[in-house]
Specification:
heterohexamer, A: mainly alpha, Helix Hairpins, about 85% helix, flat, D: Helix Hairpins, 2 helices
Chain lengths: ~80, ~80, ~80, ~80, ~80, ~80
Amino acid sequence: MDPQEAQKLAAELEVEMMADMYNRMTSSCHKKCISTRYDTGDLEKGEAVCIDRCVAKYLDIHEQIGKKLTEMSQTDEEAMSK
Amino acid sequence: MDPQEAQKLAAELEVEMMADMYNRMTSSCHKKCISTRYDTGDLEKGEAVCIDRCVAKYLDIHEQIGKKLTEMSQTDEEAMSK
Amino acid sequence: MDPQEAQKLAAELEVEMMADMYNRMTSSCHKKCISTRYDTGDLEKGEAVCIDRCVAKYLDIHEQIGKKLTEMSQTDEEAMSK
Amino acid sequence: MDESSQLRKIKDFLIIYNSLTERCFTRCVTNMNHRYPTKDETSCIHNCAERFQKGNQRFMKQFMKMTPEMVQRRNE
Amino acid sequence: MDESSQLRKIKDFLIIYNSLTERCFTRCVTNMNHRYPTKDETSCIHNCAERFQKGNQRFMKQFMKMTPEMVQRRNE
Amino acid sequence: MDESSQLRKIKDFLIIYNSLTERCFTRCVTNMNHRYPTKDETSCIHNCAERFQKGNQRFMKQFMKMTPEMVQRRNE
């Protein structure tokens, strides 16, 4: 694989993983925020507020977990190099 | 991307999405139709009838939702072009 | 498609399907083995034993189902060729 | 827009379309006593699709608002 | 059949195989007190696999029967 | 390690990362009364991530131990 192709694949992977994260987030927040009574097609006010908070919180937590995973893998590597 | 390659990718995408729809349908209808008592390996008569109706209904509803989404996106575009 | 490319795609498919099986296994065993009380970050002894057994059992059953599917498809082919 | 991002857009639409059918079917169709969707089922399906679509637009809007901050923090 | 559709067929088989294992394992194996599948679990697994496979054949048959109508309606 | 297996490794990491966020968020965040994660939620998230990661390592270890036998049996 030449470096240019590798870079293109890496960029595609980033887009794909961002889309995967987005899909998991909407699925998770849908369950937490949107009522399953379908007597009307409109979002209620409370549902809209819930979506906004849920997205913000999900992204915060995604970031925290990223840091945690990096931390944990560093501890593992230190333990192995001893 | 040359037009021929784009066409090939579009055709592959259609097959992939048809397969995805089929998989979601079988998963959903399995849950609605097939008993989880596994005391025999045979499908009961009622389960077979349920599968046939479930597939037919799923495809009907898939079509209805397709129309609804097209309708909704047209309303959005009209609202934006005002 | 030339034979070399076909072979490469077949190898990629095998890796992808192995990864899919592994992901389904961990997801299924997680649900069966790991407590959802998150008052500590450590795995308990019982959870670790449960994971080991669950992986072993899952692989056994994956093998059994593979044999069963092969058997069933042979019966189908014999029935059709009659 | 080039052909590759147009395909991406079609794919994103089709994934939403497929998952919407799955979710609304699962929630609105509760028995298989009839071959054709009943009036109640049809009305439930329409409201469900509309709500999910409005929900999706809200998700996208909020996501677009939040990501610049997130990317900025990551690059600091 | 050319190589590309043969690969597609193998992939479809492997997806069914993987999802069958997942579903039957989830439903039939209820505790981890033993390392090896018990007699009851094994019998449940076999019935589950057979049923799912028969169900899949029924799905495919009905789907094949319905799609021509659907495609025709769409092209009208 | 060549570039293609390095990409595979990055992809595997990102899938774990995404699924970990999904599972821990679903289990630890139970209400949307607040915009920011509460102290209890944050602590739950950290324990959840740690446990899942330790679980994943155990899964991988056991899987690596079992597969040679499995491959051998298949080739017999």
